[in-house]
Amino acid sequence: MADHIVCTVEELPEGARKIVEAEGFLIGVFNCGGELLAIEDRCSHDDGPLAEGELDCAAGTVECPRHGSIFDLRTGRPKTLPAFAPVETFPVRVEDGQIKLEVD
Ligand code: FES
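# FE2/S2 (inorganic) cluster complex -> structure
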């Protein structure tokens, strides 16, 4: 397991996202109403750029921009077709003012 520094807390305000590369994954890190969530930036349907999709913080979801599957940011599970397989999610925490990601 490795820690990756995403950015400082100030650099990811509420509603913002940042895409980073860590351990061979592209990962989207989101600030949803103060809750930090991280999901693989690769849709399980057809490798779409998932983390670039429309964010719905109230529902805790992101919509794949390619064919519209909606994924739960907390579990990585798709809530709508065409995707049916989950994507990876990653623990995020704040330490010394920095946002850190744990990636296996
Ligand atoms: S690539 Fe995401 S729904 Fe098809």
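# post-check
The chain has one domain: 2-103.
The beta strands are 2-8, 17-22, 25-32, 35-40, 54-56, 61-63, 70-72, 89-90, 92-95, 98-103.
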